[in-house]
Specification:
Distance between the termini: 19 Å
InterPro entries: Integrase-like_N (IPR017856), TACO1_YebC-like_2nd/3rd_dom (IPR048300), TACO1_YebC_N (IPR049083), Transcrip_reg_TACO1-like (IPR002876), Transcrip_reg_TACO1-like_dom3 (IPR026564), YebC-like (IPR029072)
Family: Belongs to the TACO1 family.
GO cellular component, one term: cytosol
Number of strands: 8
Keywords: Cytoplasm, DNA-binding, Transcription, Transcription regulation
CATH topology of one domain: Arc Repressor Mutant, subunit A
Strand order of the largest sheet: 3-1-2-8
CATH class of one domain: Mainly Alpha
Protein name: Probable transcriptional regulatory protein E4635_02165
Number of helices: 8
């Protein structure tokens, strides 16, 4: 098993368990997908992927359809994806993905969290290079041979594949998302969910007291409505 497997195993037990937060994130994804490629999922591959994720999160179909309709309204503000970088106490690098309709508000909020928790907000590119930007797809395990599937999907960019209790998960570089999505759809394979993650190239182990310092900052960041994902280089306990 590789780094993607270990990252997923550690992260799975962690955050984003709150259903309301998950639905908010998916709602923003729908708006961005519709603004980018229109409201028809058959011709908008990004929207198809978001709808799959909504289904995996048990988001009601009515909620999804309502979000698509709202996103189609010209008066609905679009969200801009903005990346923030910085350091928590004890040298832990933090990468924050946000989706915001008011960048000034988001910048001020993120900076305040770092300042209040003895962290340092960094400049663009200061820690991003420490993380590999990956994409992932989850498909049902039934009827699949993982080793055979891995050999078949290598040509489309898949670098790591493994099975768990929820199905088969594939990891690939960020740039391979479109090719893999197209191939899975061509094979009529059900895509349970898909998405993007940033996997730290190296991690740092801290003492319990030091972990508490970092967790304090992470919790403040993750509670912000504009924040979509938070990644860091701390070893998960």
């Amino acid at each position: 098993m590789g780094r993607a497997f270990e990252f997923r195993k550690a992260r799975k037990m962690k955050r984003w368990s709150a259903m309301a937060k998950t639905f908010t994130r998916i709602g923003k994804d729908i708006v961005m997908a519709v603004k980018e490629g229109g409201p028809n999922p058959e011709t908008n591959s990004r929207l198809r992927a978001v709808i799959q994720n909504a289904k995996a999160a048990n988001m009601p179909k009515d909620n999804v359809e309502r979000a698509i309709k709202k996103a189609s309204d010209k008066d609905t503000a679009n969200f801009k994806e903005v990346l923030f970088e910085g350091y928590a106490p004890h040298g832990i690098a933090i990468l924050i993905e946000t989706a915001t309709d008011n960048n000034n508000r988001t910048v001020a909020n993120i900076r305040s969290y770092f300042n209040k928790c003895n962290g340092t907000m960094g400049t663009q590119g200061s820690v991003e290079f420490m993380f590999d930007h990956t994409c992932n797809f989850r498909i049902p395990a039934e009827g699949q041979d993982v080793e055979e599937l891995e050999l078949e999907m290598i040509d489309f960019g898949v670098e790591e594949i493994f099975a768990d209790e929820d199905g088969i998960l594939m990891y690939a570089p960020f740039e391979s998302f479109g090719a893999i999505q197209k191939e899975l759809e061509n094979r009529n394979m059900e895509i349970l969910s898909s998405g993007f993650e940033r996997i730290p190239q190296i991690t740092k182990e801290l003492t319990p007291d030091q972990v508490a310092d970092v967790e304090k900052l992470l919790e403040k960041i993750e509670e912000d409505d504009d924040v979509m994902n938070v990644y860091h280089t701390m070893v998960e306990l």
